[in-house]
Protein: Alpha/beta hydrolase
Amino acid sequence: MKTNFVYSAVAAALLSGTAIATPAQAAEYKTILIHGFQADQLNRPNSTNVELEGEQYWSSFWINHADERIDWPSYERLEGKIATDYIWPKLKAFAENGTCNPGCVFVTHSTGDLVARYILDNQATWLQNAGLQPLNIVATFDLAGAGGGSELADTAISAATSGGVIGELTRQAVEAWLGGMPEEFGIMWDLKVNNARQVAQYPSDNAPRLRFIADASDYYGLTSGFLPGSDDGVVSTHSSCGASAKGEFGSCSTSVAINGQLASQDDAVTSFMPYHYPLLMSAEYSHGNLPDAGYEGKVTAARTQFNAGYKTISYNTYEETTGSWFWKKTYRYVRESDSQSFSQLILNSL
Structure:
């Protein structure tokens, strides 16, 4: 972890009202990145540089704020070569080097959420069987998590394997997401909603899964018709919020909408996967730009304070009111979210 990160994070946190550990405490924890699905790898398994493309995935922001990465290829299956050839060697090295002795925080994006859940459920057993100490993973910060699967994976695989004529809307949605129809599907099989929800349903590790949710789209709404409830263009809120079951949900909070409006949310998620806790939401960020450095819009807090065990995370918020009488609406936003990127706000929370 770069030395200047600790001090810049503290300064940013003081400005935004985000509670973080002291510099000495913050320096103890190691940050490990787990990237998401990379569609362009599906049809080029022989020309994919997994490590280089893993580094490039985070190049906009997080690469400068992390200690380690777990890189993996999208053309393989999670419980196959991704586990044996990419996850296990990294976990073994972390254990042998004592990387996580002071505590590790995973930062995941998209399918990295599913990969992290699989790791949390298995790492202790794998390492103990190898005569090594399990990793001390204190929390995961999951950006646009796809741990609940994506209906787009179901749609794409069905369209490619059904043998029938593909509807125009289906074709447009699949091509918008994947760039074309792949010949192989790799981890997309694991991203089918029912398949994803069977992976490590009850992880043996109780590290809190802290959720960060977007609700805009990279694809001009082309994919939204295939995603139930609110969505970020790739995953629905049932996945990004960490809902215990798939469904059509509008928010991760019963009292605040994804756009920050303070009002009862009748279609909110009320039951979550074990240890899943939504923290921040925004209707102005999409699946793809959530981990980037660029500012896109205001962010609201599903929770203004949360005890994550290894620290307490809190967000300093303010309220804005628009209209009057019957048209009066009140919104809650995180301070400084009108000038800082979503990723910067998350970094302040680490």
About this structure: The two ends are 12 Å apart (CA to CA). Confidence is low (pLDDT under 50) at residues 1-27. The first strand starts at residue 30 and ends at 34.
